[in-house]
Amino acid sequence: GRLNRVKRFELFIEVARQVVQVYPDAVFEIWGEGDSVYRCELESLIEKENLGNHVFLRGATSQVDKELSKASMYVCTSSTESFGMTLIEAMESGLPVVSFDCPHGPRNIIHDNEDGFLIPNDSVDKMAQVIVDLLRNRKKLSEMGQKARENATAFHIDNVMKKWLNLFSK
């Protein structure tokens, strides 16, 4: 992703704070580069909330697949998403996506309670609870990850092109 205020990583950090209260070994990673002032604000918030052992700003990587393969789930706190390529990348890696139901993007990608969760926008407490529930139920986490991998195939080029060709032929 990118470090930009539209991603609302301050809410991500608040979600992390709540989850860590229940799962003190939980680790949250933010990947991407961007606004250096915003990065400093996030670093200060992480320090203020005493989350330095739990929330990490990792910077950019060219090995997105490798990093996603190490995760349990993908969390999106954006205020808006255009299409949400990172959501599909996460799903292709077998990760359920927990996302705010922000305008555009997530609702068109995530099948709620099947391959991820659409959380009412800005409901930090609800998002944290859903993550805790998934961590408690590893079987459901795994099943949702498998379903995410299956559902992500709808966005493969061959499947999208078939839809375009069908649309144009009509």
Overview of the molecule:
This protein is of the alpha/beta class and 170 residues long. The protein has 8 helices and 7 strands. The protein has helices at residues 9-22, 36-48, 64-68, 85-92, 106-109, 124-136, 138-152, 157-169, and strands at residues 2-3, 28-31, 33-34, 55-59, 74-76, 97-100, 116-119. Strands 5-6-7 form a 3-stranded parallel beta sheet. It has a two-stranded parallel ribbon with strand order 1-3. Helix 5 links the parallel strand 6 (97-100) and strand 7. Helix 4 packs across helix 7 (138-152). The longest helix has 15 residues, at 138-152. It is globular, with a radius of gyration of 16 Å. The mean pLDDT is 94.
Task: Outline the fold blueprint.
Elements: E1 2-3, H1 9-22, E2 28-31, E3 33-34, H2 36-48, E4 55-59, H3 64-68, E5 74-76, H4 85-92, E6 97-100, H5 106-109, E7 116-119, H6 124-136, H7 138-152, H8 157-169
Parallel strand pairs: 1-3, 2-4, 5-6, 6-7
Helix pairs in contact: 1-6, 4-7
Brief description of this entry?
With about 170 residues, the protein is of the alpha/beta class. It has eight helices and seven strands; from the N terminus they run βαββαβαβαβαβααα.
Question: Over all CA atoms, what is the radius of gyration?
Answer: 16 Å
Terminal-residue CA separation: 37 Å
- Unreliable runs: none
Strand content: 5-15%
Q: Would you report the number of β strands?
A: 7
* Order of helix and strand elements from N to C terminus: EHEEHEHEHEHEHHH
